[in-house]
Design brief:
alpha/beta, Rossmann fold, seven-stranded mixed beta sheet, 7 helices, 7 strands, about 20% strand, globular
C-alpha cells in the first residue's frame, strides 16, 4: 500500500509516550522520511522516569534528544507527564490539539490505542492512552475550532495517521537502508539498553518477519503500521 501525499506536503509529527518508543517502533521509517526530505518533529509525553531503576528525567530527556538528532529529527518537545500514569484526559488531548494546530503536520505517527495480543510489550497502558489522546486530538480536537485547546489556533485536519503496535497492519515500510541510523539512535538510550540485553537481535527478527509478511525479498527489513486517512 503506497501512502499518498503531494510533494510539498512533507511535515510529520511523531507523538509517543516514552523516550525510546519512536526508535524501537519506527526509527527506520522516520530516518527514511528525513532522507526523503520530510521535516519531522517529535513530542514525548512522559520522561520515562520508571523505565529503569535510577533513571532520572534529565537523563532520559538527554538520551532522547541525542537519539532524535541521530535520526535527523528536530529537538523533541517533552510534556512532562509521569511515566505509567498517563490517561487520555481532556487536558492531554487539548495540549496535543494545540501542537497539531501549531505544527500543522501532514502525517502523524503514534501508538495504536488497541491492545496487540501478538506483541504485548507494545501495549503498555501509556502507549494506549497516548494513542487514544492523539487520535482524539486529530479529530475532532485540532480540526474543529471550538473542540479543545486554544481557540486562537487555526483548525488543522491531519490527512493521515500512522499507528505502530497495532494488531493489524495495512502498510509495511522497507527500512533496510536505514537500519544503521535506527540502531545508532537506539544506542543513545544508554539507561535502557543496559537493562535489556538482546534488544537489537529481537528487533532484527521482528523486522525480518514484517518484511516477509509484506512479500519483500529475503534479507529485507520492514516496520509495520496501520494507516488511517482523514482526507
Amino acid at each position: 500500500m503506497t501512502p499518498s501525499h503531494r510533494e510539498e506536503q512533507r511535515r510529520a509529527l511523531a507523538i509517543v509516550a516514552h523516550p525510546d518508543d519512536i526508535e524501537f517502533a519506527a526509527g527506520g521509517t522516520v530516518a527514511g522520511w528525513v532522507t526523503r526530505g520530510w521535516e519531522v518533529s517529535l513530542c514525548v509525553v512522559t520522561d520515562g522516569q520508571r523505565g529503569t531503576d535510577g533513571a532520572l528525567s534529565a537523563d532520559r530527556r538527554a538520551e532522547q534528544t541525542a537519539a532524535a538528532k541521530a535520526l535527523g529529527v528536530d529537538r523533541p518537545r517533552f510534556l512532562g507527564y509521569m511515566d505509567a500514569e498517563v490517561s487520555p484526559t481532556l487536558e492531554l488531548r487539548a495540549a496535543l490539539a494545540d501542537l497539531l494546530r501549531l505544527l500543522r503536520p501532514h502525517r502523524v505517527l503514534t501508538h495504536s490505542p488497541r491492545y496487540a495480543w501478538a506483541f504485548p510489550t507494545t501495549s503498555h497502558p501509556d502507549h494506549r492512552a497516548v494513542g487514544t489522546a492523539t487520535l482524539d486530538a486529530v479529530y475532532p480536537g485540532a480540526s474543529i475550532p471550538s473542540s479543545v485547546g486554544s481557540p486562537a489556533g487555526l483548525p488543522w485536519q491531519v490527512p493521515e495517521v500512522w499507528l505502530f503496535g497495532d494488531p493489524e497492519a495495512n502498510h509495511f515500510e522497507d527500512v533496510t537502508d536505514h537500519l544503521a541510523r535506527k540502531l545508532a539512535a537506539l544506542r543513545c538510550h544508554d539507561s535502557q539498553l543496559s537493562a535489556r540485553a538482546g534488544d537489537e537481535a529481537q528487533l532484527r527478527s521482528r523486522m525480518a518477519g514484517a518484511a516477509r509478511a509484506a512479500g519483500l525479498p529475503d534479507g529485507r527489513l520492514a516496520e509495520r503500521f496501520q494507516i488511517l486517512r482523514y482526507v
